[in-house]
Amino acid sequence: MLEDNDLTIHDSHVILTYLTEKYGKDDSLYPKDIKKRAMVDQKLFLDTLIFYRIRAITTPAFFEGVRKPTEKQLKDLEEVYVFLEAFLSKTKFIADNNMTLADISILATVSAMRYIIPIDGTKYPKVQSWFNYMKNQSFYKKCTEPASIELGKLVKSRLDV
C-alpha cells in the first residue's frame, strides 16, 4: 500500500504507474505514446492473471494444507511461460525493446512462480535470458530478491512440487 499525503493506493500496478508518472525522469518505463503504453498496460493486466494463477495454488497450500496442485493448475501456470516466450520473441523485453513497468511487475511475479514451476531454459530460453538479466538489476537485488527468497522457503515447505 502507498500513502502519498491524502492519496492511498493499494494495487501494485497502480502504485508503479503513479510513482513513475510522478517521479520518472522520462517516459521509458511508462511511455506517453498511446500505442506503446497500451502494450505496457496489456502486460500489466496480464500480470494480474499470472498472480491469480499462482494464488490458486498457494492459497490452498498455505491456508488449507493442500500440498499438491492439480494438473490443470500446473498446466495453467506453465502456459504463462509460453506467453512470455512469445512476447520475448517479438521484443527484447516483455512489452517493448526497452525495460518498462511490465518487466518490473512481471519479474516479481515470475520470481515467485519459479518456485512452483522452475523456468525450463531449454523450452523457454528467452524467458530464462530475460529473467537472468532482470534479476541482476539493482532494484531486484535490493527489493524483490529478499522477499522472493523467503517466499521460496515458504512455498517449498507447503507444496509438493
From TrEMBL:
<dbReference type="GO" id="GO:0004364">
    <property type="term" value="F:glutathione transferase activity"/>
</dbReference>
<dbReference type="InterPro" id="IPR040079">
    <property type="entry name" value="Glutathione_S-Trfase"/>
</dbReference>
<feature type="domain" description="GST N-terminal">
    <location>
        <begin position="1"/>
        <end position="27"/>
    </location>
</feature>
<comment type="subunit">
    <text>Homodimer.</text>
</comment>
<protein>
    <recommendedName>
        <fullName>Glutathione S-transferase</fullName>
    </recommendedName>
</protein>
<dbReference type="GO" id="GO:0006749">
    <property type="term" value="P:glutathione metabolic process"/>
</dbReference>
<dbReference type="InterPro" id="IPR004046">
    <property type="entry name" value="GST_C"/>
</dbReference>
<dbReference type="InterPro" id="IPR010987">
    <property type="entry name" value="Glutathione-S-Trfase_C-like"/>
</dbReference>
<dbReference type="InterPro" id="IPR004045">
    <property type="entry name" value="Glutathione_S-Trfase_N"/>
</dbReference>
<dbReference type="Pfam" id="PF00043">
    <property type="entry name" value="GST_C"/>
</dbReference>
<dbReference type="InterPro" id="IPR036282">
    <property type="entry name" value="Glutathione-S-Trfase_C_sf"/>
</dbReference>
<feature type="domain" description="GST C-terminal">
    <location>
        <begin position="33"/>
        <end position="161"/>
    </location>
</feature>
<dbReference type="InterPro" id="IPR036249">
    <property type="entry name" value="Thioredoxin-like_sf"/>
</dbReference>
